[in-house]
């Protein structure tokens, strides 16, 4: 279970590269396999499309069970909306007794935050707006709770072509608890080709380009813009 | 502003190492400078103790202003309870117009999670129990909110020799909303010498060794132990 960071070779760790180098079979979502193409020469590479997560894990486990060293690739951190948990669950459910190592990576939220400044300096929450696996009512309650508790929030899977309402509703919830001038940062394809980073605010969030490859960072009541950076002050006297 | 990950060379990214290689002056908390000693030969290295964060940033900014390439080191991710925000705030307050780049790293929570399994697979919050910079009442309200919203939680700065009560109070808050058998993972000095990782539960958390170098991961109502791993299932059918 290898996390390769947000995507570019520069954000990969040595541990991730070592694991790929030591593997014979590399499995992953096809778009992520492209990102490690410089490391997979001479190896068997097995790619599949989005929503084939269970199938990918099963392939990786089956190959590992036959004695091969397998690297299952996740972008960002495999433990944050990645496939680390699914791999463990499936190994147990299918009785596959292979050793598993989980290699953390720079998370998409951390990478987006770094490009924007320092929005996550204080307590924050990470919430996915995708209701494929979690009921929307649960997501909505979590948004209410963290908005009221004045946490900075990183929104994953904020908007797809089909799914526009969740971001609209999330923005309205935050707007009930924070001024419209609250800084909001959007990082799309961070560290990859086509990287696009925008600093906006709550009142203008819905006018910005946001897609499934974006992370949306919503500031809290103390967050501000300083010299073009998005910062949540930690409380030091400056 | 360079994040070096939780500490070991294997968890460093290429981008972090490149920035250190290109710098002439390396500034940081002395314990973290030890962790990059393999990269700082021939450079000027300026270390200082804990609680000297403002002084460290000022030194780094002053040296940068005099035209030198400076690497200011943070362990983990510099944007998560690190010094990225302080550096931006001080540069603005002191009118220092040097270019700043923030280099993200593997966060301590992400690294601890990977050793324990996959506790952060779903929505989670990150909360520091240190009341040095944030009033305890604010922290307490945030704990209440995220405990009630069934978020997995990563607790930073959970306990020091002087400060024992916050973790006791946090455990009691979670216990009001989750069963005592809820998995709790503790990662201490992850990726460093003396690494210590324990899987426990809410009822036994206070008996475990926890210090300022620990991250405590508290599961939500769906988290469970699977083959010795701590997993929060994301909701896939397995």
Tell me the span between the first and last alpha carbons of chain A: 42 Å
Low-pLDDT segments, ≥5 res of chain A: none
Q: Which range best describes the helical content of chain A: under 10%, 10-25%, 25-40%, 40-55%, 55-70% or over 70%?
A: 25-40%
What is the helix/strand order of chain A? EHEHEHEHHEEHEHEEEEE
Number of helices of chain A: 7
- Helix/strand structural class of chain A: alpha/beta
Oligomer: homodimer
The strand line-up of the biggest sheet of chain A is: 6-7-10-8-9
User: Radius of gyration of chain A over alpha carbons?
Assistant: 19 Å
Tell me the fraction of residues in β-strands of chain A, as a range. 15-25%
The biggest sheet of chain A, with number of strands, parallel, antiparallel or mixed sense and barrel status, is: 5 strands, mixed
Query: What sort of overall outline of chain A do the alpha carbons produce when their principal axes are compared?
Result: elongated
Largest interchain contact: A-B, 75 and 75 residues
Annotation, overall tally of beta strands of chain A = 12
Q: Compute the average pLDDT of chain A.
A: 95
